[in-house]
Each structure stands twice: as structure tokens, then as C-alpha cells.
Amino acid sequence: MERPLFPSTLLSLLLLALMSLGLMSWAWTAPSCTIGDSSLWPNISYYIPFCPLAPGLHLFASCFNVNDLAQTLREVPQDTEVLCLQDALEPLKSLNTLSFHGSCLNCSQNVQLPISLGRLTLRHSCLTELKELQGLFPNLVSGSSPATSPSPRTSFLEVLDLSANLQLSRLGGRALHGLQLHSLRLDGTPLNALDLLGSDLLHLDSLYLVGTGAEKRPGNVTGYFELRALDLGRNQTQNLEDGDLLSFRSLELLSLHAMAFSYIPPIF
């Protein structure tokens, strides 16, 4: 059973009670936000399940039903170490680009992507499987998690950038079933490009695999998706064979920069 969010009035009373019992040093509430010392967390974390707290951090702020993101950020102390925002992106009806750098998101945070979103970046994250994206962003793919996706969106992205995710090496099944995606960037990410054949991606036009350490050519991937652009720069592939020309026939752009080829077909 889903845990209900604590009403702000009752939460305020709980904070006062804990303070009177000496179970915490200080805490206060702002509009739609609870702010306090981490010593409070064991007592109320059950009622704010979408906000995990990392060990060793002291000041947290948990905000929900955020309608004015700028105003909410003004209410939060500048020295806040953990900021959890629920439903914060939904009011941003015109948001086109969203980036997470160095963030270890988890499924409990339930990040609902705006309908207008066209570019999603998740770099230097804790992703290990591509399928985890469905849990992190429940409405990324239509119908993937209807119970937790109150804001359905068209399953389309112009760009999905998963570069520099050093732990991302597995697909995890039909990871992105039905997602229409024009451009996928996996630069510096060890995911095998051939695994994308089982991802159920639709309409992939461009694939960037710069510096992934790949030793094999993703010819099957190129032909399967009928890619228009492919970047294989700074990889360890040493040869291009005559047969590669057939799998590359759909390409309009092929980048092979910083590659130490020992053989290239003369008719390439």
C-alpha cells in the first residue's frame, strides 16, 4: 500500500513534539516544505518516502506540490545539503531541456517529465542498466507505469544523453519499449551498442559512441535502425571491412576521428 504524504499541519505538530522531547536540534516549515536537521529524519522519513537522505549530511529540505519552483528555492536555506522536490517539474509547461549531472536518482523520487521535454541528459549517474530509466522517470515511456504517471506525455525525445555513465553496461530487457528517440549519446559509457537491438527504441536516427572502448563495429545496429549519423571516434576498432559499406548505406554522417585504422576498404 502506498504511504500517504503527511499533511503539512500534522507534520508541523510532529516537529514541535519532537523538539519538545529533545529528539532533534531544530526544524521548521516553509510553504510546502519541511526543513530540518538530519537527526529528525528517522522519525519522519516514513511519511516522506520520495526523499532519501545520504549519510553524513545534516541539513535537508523536502518540498511537495511545488507550483512555483523559483519561489520554493527562495524559501530553502542556501546551505541546504539535500533538496527533494516532488511534482516540481510538472508546472514547467515549456521546459525543453533537463539535465542531471552527478546525480544518483532512485525510483522513489518519481520524477515526472514535462510534456514539452525534448532533451534529457543524465551524466555521471549511478545507472547500471538502461531499463532503470523507466523507474526514474515513470512517464518517459507511455504506459510503462500508469499507476505512478498522472501526467502522460508523448513518448518522444529529440536527444537522450547518457554519456559518462561508467557503470551503465547492461540493457535490462526491453528497456525503452516504444520510446521514439532521434539521437542517443553514449559517449564514454561502456554499454555495448549491439545491446540496443533489444531496447525496442523507435525512430533512432543518430548514435554517438565516442570513447566507449568498443573494439567491434556496430554494423548491425546501424542497419537495424537505419541510422543517418554515427560517431565512433576515439575507439579501438582497427579495421573497416568491405561488408561494412552495406550496413552503413543509410548513413549521411560517419565520424571516425582519432581512430588508428590498419585497413580501410579502397572504395570506402
TrEMBL record:
<keyword id="KW-0732">Signal</keyword>
<dbReference type="InterPro" id="IPR032675">
    <property type="entry name" value="LRR_dom_sf"/>
</dbReference>
<protein>
    <submittedName>
        <fullName>Uncharacterized protein</fullName>
    </submittedName>
</protein>
<feature type="signal peptide">
    <location>
        <begin position="1"/>
        <end position="29"/>
    </location>
</feature>
